[in-house]
Amino acid sequence: MPINIPNGLPAKQILESEKIFALEEDVARKQDIRPLRIVILNLMPKKIETETQILRLISKSPLQVDIDFMMVSNHVSKNTSADHLLKFYDDFSTLKKNRYDCLIITGAPVEHLEFEDVDYWDELCEIMEWSKTHVYSTLHICWGAQAGLYYHYHIQKHLMKQKVFGIYPQTLCDEYNFLTNGFDEIHYTPHSRHTAIDEHALAKQEALEILSRSDVTGSNIVATGDFREIYILGHLEYGKETLAQEYFRDLSQGKEIQLPFNYFPEDDPQQEPVLTWRSHANLLYRNWLNYVYQMTPYDLQELSAYKQEHNVAAASV
């Protein structure tokens, strides 16, 4: 089924070249069905690249999806044109009146900062608080996952001795979980980060379940039992060349950067990387959207009351 995107979005041509059916708004409005509504808070510098990566995964679901893009107002993007942001993005003050089936909070290259020192931290906290009553399920990615775990559960992050950078095998912890249903016992996930969460603090949170992990990366996929909150510490949305681009960029700038683990064939950066995580990335997003489609109220205006009732029921169990 198609995804519905803003008219003229640059990702449309790329998606069409990959045989992904994307409807622009004018055509989608003529279809009499109830699509899922997803808002993407894109905190990554290269917003067009991130848009394409996430839309590529969302499109693999058989459901029709409406997409809004959100940006923070307290930060000036240096890598995306103001024209693109003006045309396709709205800030939180404009979108907060809406209700959504799903929210995606991306990563951001600010992990070297304390959360409170990030210039848009207060606004992000407001968005995460808003999501409790205006969004059925929120998916947090990489730094976005660390930020969510810190905000909702006070789980701290810490600097690692060496950057986790590469494609790491992850062990499936629960083969019967709906979100990871169909996963192999070992699956691969790209990681690119200098920080890790406090695993001991995470283990004490009864509301959270670790769905996949490794001894090197720590927890990889974490979620609440009702999937209202999902945390992916890696980057399943990454394309085949994303880590290569990061590696060569840092190399050209004279930065200290190790070769991405388990990425280039024979550890030769002149060879083309092999995409080993695509099927599990597609499966996770498809499972997530399928679950939300079955569980979210048909009328999103009922979402606030529905979630309040759901919270009371969950707390009494």
Automatic annotation (TrEMBL):
Site feature (Important for acyl-CoA specificity) residues: E111
SUPFAM superfamilies assigned: Class I glutamine amidotransferase-like (SSF52317)
Chief location bin: cytoplasm
Important for substrate specificity (site feature) positions: S192
Biological or metabolic pathway of the protein: Amino-acid biosynthesis; L-methionine biosynthesis via de novo pathway; O-acetyl-L-homoserine from L-homoserine: step 1/1
Reactions listed under catalytic activity: L-homoserine + acetyl-CoA = O-acetyl-L-homoserine + CoA
Keywords annotated in UniProt: Acyltransferase, Amino-acid biosynthesis, Cytoplasm, Methionine biosynthesis, Transferase
GO molecular function: homoserine O-acetyltransferase activity; homoserine O-succinyltransferase activity
Top-rank lineage group of the source organism: Bacteria
Any GO BP: L-methionine biosynthetic process from homoserine via O-succinyl-L-homoserine and cystathionine
Annotated substrate binding sites: K163, S192, R249
Enzyme class name: transferase
Active site: C142 (acyl-thioester intermediate), H235 (proton acceptor), E237
EC number: 2.3.1.31
GO CC terms, sorted: cytoplasm
Matching Pfam families: HTS (PF04204)
Subcellular location: Cytoplasm
Keyword Amino-acid biosynthesis tagged: yes
Family per record: Belongs to the MetA family.
Function: Transfers an acetyl group from acetyl-CoA to L-homoserine, forming acetyl-L-homoserine.
Record-given protein name: Homoserine O-acetyltransferase
Source organism (scientific name): [Clostridium] innocuum 2959
